[in-house]
Design a protein that fits this description.
This protein is mainly alpha-helical and 366 residues long. The chain has helices spanning 5-17, 43-76, 82-117, 121-137, 140-174, 177-186, 191-201, 205-216, 238-248, 258-275, 280-289, 295-303, 308-311, 322-339, 349-357; strands spanning 221-222, 228-229. The longest helix is centred in the first third of the chain and has 36 residues, at 82-117.
Length: 366
């Protein structure tokens, strides 16, 4: 049965008038980035410290090992023959390079393995290597290896230094220990003045003691050749006297005053060392000759000599043994200062111990 028309109209009106649901506004999705966990404040410094310790340990180990191996190789293959000396040494250097590369690769692999277990293991192992090789460096055996390494690199200059050093050791060995000890005891009264002069003019005090021992045996006096006082000073260039007087704060230094005498001697040694380009042997030779006959520089120009090696043929007419005597006495004062006694120069560890202590003014600069 059909519904009346009026009811249909009402229904349609009702439907039309019914409000349509409003669409919900779109919300734009914001991609929220997850915040990365911040590294602890001290982690970068900690890693930098670990890497620095590792690099330091490896560097110390590598440099020391190279010096030792090259030093021993220079001794084992010493000579001038090609097949017995030069070629084996060159092959040894090549082998050292290959071994270093293999060790570096091995360390890189080991480093990854250690780092996976604990970050501190890598620098700890590197520092351990450095400590082990450092212990070896402190032994007397390293002195020989390092000496050969210096000879390998130093060339003519090192050869001259070594030649002079062994002459000094030989002279020291010949001294009468009783007489030497008496002279060391006599020096006590003048050591403070010598130390002061050495500090002012930047001279090794043991070197000044060696000069005084050679010149006067620490018995200040006037000699027949015109020498005066502790250092038996004769002719002194005017500029040196003025320089010594300025440091002493006096207008005219007195050669009879031990303190003044020490200052003048230190200034004179400084002057001649500079003139001889810090060649200790030539500087002491020039100090002994003084300005007479134009001084050592003029004599060297006359003969065409330029250094320790080239002056050797002409030393028959010069005081050849003066630098040796000065340095051997200086060595005695150095040993007394370091050891409290005068060590006997013997073969073996005692000789190496003395060489390790070094000759004042002559030991190699690091």
């Amino acid at each position: 049965m059909n519904k009346p028309a009026t009811s249909r109209k009402r229904a349609s009106v009702k439907l039309e008038t019914t409000e349509k649901p409003k669409p919900k506004p779109r919300t734009t999705r914001k991609t929220v980035k997850k915040a990365l966990p911040k590294a602890p404040a001290g982690s970068f410094k900690h890693r930098l410290l670990m890497i620095s310790l590792e690099a330091l340990g490896l560097a110390i180990t590598a440099v020391s090992a190279i010096m030792i191996l090259l030093g021993y190789s220079a001794s084992w293959f010493s000579g001038t023959r090609f097949f017995s000396s030069l070629l084996p040494f060159a092959i040894g250097v090549l082998g050292l390079i290959v071994a270093a590369a293999m060790l570096l690769i091995g360390w890189w692999k080991l480093r990854k393995w250690l780092h996976g277990r604990a970050a501190v293991l890598t620098p700890a192992l590197a520092i351990s290597f450095a400590l082990v090789i450092g212990w070896f460096v402190m032994q007397n055996h390293f002195t020989q290896a390092f000496g050969h390494f210096r000879m390998l690199v130093g060339g003519k200059q090192e050869a001259g230094r070594v030649t002079l050093a062994h002459q000094v050791y030989a002279a020291y060995r010949r001294y009468n220990s009783t007489q030497l000890l008496k002279m060391v005891n006599r020096a006590e009264a003048y050591n403070s003045a010598i130390a002061e002069a050495a500090k002012v003019f930047d001279i090794d005090p043991n070197l000044l003691q060696g000069i005084a021992a050679t010149e006067s045996s620490f018995l200040p006096r006037d000699s027949q050749d015109g020498g005066h006082g502790l250092f038996q000073i004769t002719l002194v260039p005017k500029a040196i006297m003025e320089q010594a007087g300025k440091r002493l704060a006096v207008s005219k230094p007195s050669l009879l005053n031990p303190r003044h005498n020490a200052f003048i001697a230190a200034a004179t040694v400084k002057y001649y060392l500079a003139e001889m380009h810090n060649d200790l042997f030539l500087g002491l030779l020039a100090y002994n000759i003084g300005p007479a006959n134009g001084g050592l520089r003029f004599i060297m120009q006359q003969y065409g000599a330029t250094d320790f090696v080239t002056i050797q043929p002409y030393l028959q007419q010069l005081p050849r043994d003066y630098p040796i005597r000065v340095l051997s006495h200086a060595l005695a004062f150095r040993l007394w200062q370091k050891e409290g006694k005068l060590l006997v120069y013997e073969e073996g560890d005692n000789a190496m111990r003395i060489q390790r202590i070094g000759i004042p003014g002559l030991q190699a600069k690091l």
